[in-house]
Design brief:
Blueprint lengths: L8 H8 L10 H12 L2 H15 L3 H25 L6 H8 L2 H35 L23 H16 L1 H26 L15 H12 L19 H30 L10 H8 L3 H35 L18 H17 L6 H25 L14 H15 L3 H25 L1 H4 L1
Helix pairs in contact: 2-8, 2-10, 2-12, 3-9, 3-10, 4-9, 4-10, 4-14, 4-15, 5-6, 5-14, 6-7, 6-12, 6-13, 6-14, 6-16, 7-12, 7-13, 8-10, 8-12, 11-12, 12-13, 14-15, 14-16
Length: 461
């Protein structure tokens, strides 16, 4: 009954070879899956808000700071994903190294992170969709486009609910079909971002970059903690481990390449954005489109809105996918109800789990104002990054001879820096976020000791 009992690495590797989820993804699919999760609300929404309120033209430094923290974590994820290619990501890694109670709590944490991210991003999708319809003089009733309590007299955010249910339908049909849709939409949004860069670079005025750090170093760090939301997603690649054809080779490639491509695009876009428009005017919901409208490129600005909708749709797809895979892994280990790990005999997907998760996410997006909960997503991700770095150190010590298809460089320095960077960014988050995070973990601890501890597969064995 020890709460620190661990899963055997040997048993986990044997489990990964059993028939279950369908293996159909390659390195290219994983890279686009990562890009699909990362590029969305961050680049199309957060860039303007952070530039106007926190960092000014030094927004580029905020992205670089967050990118460094993510790069350190990405190497740790890549090592673990290639060594233990099991669904569940950092939950699984923690179970093998730190013990069951820590694994359950980080899994509980990830479930909240991905669920809130799905619902929050669906709300952003709804706003862009309404903006697109307005361009054709089509306006939806306010009562059907806003959650109660958001201050707009709304009853339900219907577009947000419908897009989540549409994504749920797609995911329940199969990962191969979902990956095809994701790949198409990722190519669309990458094309749109390149179009913004090519069109916008000619309107850059270096004078808009002065003063470069109007809010000082503290503003850069606060901005980094906020734009960290823009990097969430590459870790979701690891949750697809049991649906990859050659996980030892392809998982590290997918994780590292997706993060590298997105970081480069973030830096270039933020530099051009603050060069086109004075940072004080960027506190808008659609800063990338606004920048092109600002210089009279209205047609391209309209195309940006289409790209934003495609980009946000892929984030929804990957976040919901990751949520289902984490709860699937926890259920298979007995820590959540067994129904969540049942696989459809024909579709080879966690069919019931996918629809339960989809309905919950749709309810949250449709009826709950998420503004006060947005920072919880960042807190959950930073906690996960810290734990995966610690897990790499532990596994190097306890299983030094374990075959590793990919090894993180500069161990133990790199994992330690990962933890320090993440803690530094966590400290920069608002106090209410910490309070909410502790409350959620306390609830998780109660669920573990009352329900999961006794029903754990390890307890039965």
């Amino acid at each position: 009954m020890s709460i620190f009992r661990k899963k055997s690495i040997t048993d986990m590797l044997a489990q990964s070879q059993q028939k279950g989820l369908k293996r159909s993804l390659g390195a290219f699919d994983l890279t686009l899956l990562g890009i699909g999760a990362i590029i969305g609300t961050g680049i199309f929404v957060l860039t303007g808000v952070v530039a106007a309120k926190d960092a000014g033209p030094a927004l580029i430094l905020s992205f670089i700071l967050s990118g460094i923290a993510c790069a350190f974590a990405a190497f740790c994820y890549a090592e673990f994903a290639s060594t233990v290619p099991i669904a569940g990501s950092v939950y699984t890694y923690t179970y093998a190294t730190l013990g069951e109670v820590f694994a359950f709590l980080i899994g509980w944490d990830l479930m909240l992170e991905y669920l809130l991210a799905t619902s929050a991003v669906a709300t952003g999708w709804s706003a862009y969709f309404q903006s697109l319809l307005a361009g054709f003089n089509v306006y939806l009733p306010t009562s059907l486009t806003s959650a109660p309590g958001a201050g707009h007299g709304g009853i339900i955010n219907l577009p947000a609910v419908l897009i989540i249910l549409l994504i749920t339908t797609l995911l329940s049909r199969g990962i191969r079909e979902s990956a095809r849709v994701n790949n198409i939409m990722v190519i669309i949004k990458l094309t749109v971002i390149v179009l913004f860069i090519v069109a916008g670079v000619w309107y850059v005025k270096p004078s808009n970059w002065s003063p470069f750090t109007p809010f000082g170093f503290e503003g850069i760090v606060t901005g980094a903690a906020t734009v960290f939301f823009a990097y969430i997603g590459f870790d979701a690649v690891a949750t697809a481990a049991e649906e990859v054809k050659r996980p030892q080779r392809d998982l590290p490639l997918g994780i590292i390449w997706s993060l590298a491509i997105c970081t480069f695009l973030y830096i270039v876009v933020s530099l051009i954005l603050t060069g086109i428009v004075p940072y004080t005017q960027l506190n808008v919901a659609d800063p990338v489109s606004f920048a092109l409208t600002f210089v009279g490129q209205n047609t391209i600005a309209g195309l940006i809105s289409v790209g934003a909708i495609a980009g946000i749709t892929t984030v929804l797809l990957v976040m919901l996918f990751a949520q289902v895979r984490v709860s699937y892994a926890m259920s298979r280990d007995g820590l959540l109800p067994r129904m969540l790990s049942s696989v459809h005999p024909t579709l080879k997907t966690p069919f019931k789990n996918t629809w339960i998760t989809g309905f919950v996410a749709a309810f949250i997006a449709g009826f709950i104002d998420l503004e006060t909960l947005a920072h919880l997503v960042n807190m959950g991700t930073l906690s996960a990054f810290s734990l995966v770095a610690i897990a790499v150190l532990v596994l190097r010590k306890t299983h030094p001879t374990l075959e590793r298809a990919f090894k993180a460089p500069f161990v133990p320095v790199l994992p330690i820096l990962t933890v320090l960077f993440c803690l530094y960014l966590m400290i920069s988050l608002p106090g209410i976020t910490w309070i909410s995070f502790v409350i959620w973990l306390t609830i998780g601890a109660l669920v573990y000791f009352v329900y999961a501890r006794k029903r754990s597969t390890l307890n039965k064995s």
